[in-house]
Design goal:
Blueprint lengths: L1 E6 L5 H9 L10 E2 L2 E2 L6 E6 L6 E2 L13 E3 L4 E7 L4 E2 L2 E3 L4 E7 L4 E6 L11 E7 L4 E6 L5 E2 L2 E7 L4 E9 L2 E7 L4 E10 L2 E7 L3 E7 L7 E7 L3 E7 L10
Parallel strand pairs: 2-5, 3-6, 4-7, 5-8, 6-9, 7-10, 8-11, 9-11, 10-12, 11-13, 12-15, 13-16, 14-16, 15-17, 16-18, 17-19, 18-20, 19-21, 20-22
Antiparallel strand pairs: 1-4
Length: 249
Amino acid sequence: MSVINEGIGNMNKYFLYSLFLISFVAVASDNEIYVSQSAGNSSNIDLEQVAGSGNIIAGLNSTAGSLSAFAITGNSQTIDINQIGSLNKFLGGIVADSYTGFFEFTGSSNTFNMQTDPTNTYSADTSDVNVQVTGGSNTFTLNQATSAIASTLDLDWIINGSSNTVTSNINYDLGTNYMDIDGSDNTINFTGSGYQGGYFYLDHTGGSRTFNITQSSTLDNDWLKIISNGNNGTVCVIQNDANGTSTSC
């Protein structure tokens, strides 16, 4: 079942037309959501798929009905995503400055793949992003401002479950990436690049973990804190400014 509650600020007619299409994109037993918005400043968007499996909130490399889009553009937005079930996919892209994102996933074997402002349209500054996960064997990829500078980003992950994989790349300036993870056999791959002041904090409980953490901003004032309780696993941490000597674990 798909439920959409939207508070519309300055959204254009094209976005309204895209919302109208949502009622018609269901394929077989899987629900699918297609959204395209351009220049929708101060929008409030709520997308929910609360039952079943194989649902898609579309975007990059969509499958099933082949879809595309989930492209949301505009500053000062609030975006709330909720998917419940298994084998679901969230594949969206957001181009925005100062947006607030809530992404909640409950279930197993789901895929979350999102990039924010990869072409530096709005710089991706001052975003407050929250990802909450309950379940195992999920795969998450979040790339924030790959060619921009995510100034003062506040990114929080709360993950309860085992065998999850998180890959995150942030090009930041005074940004924070906080992870609270409970569960075994989880893998974290994080790369923080950009200009300065990257802060990474991981609080983890569980065994057989794999952490690969790299901080490599231009200035040498990044810092991190890792607390992990559990047996077995591999931890690799690299801190290196742009002018340093390349190294690896």
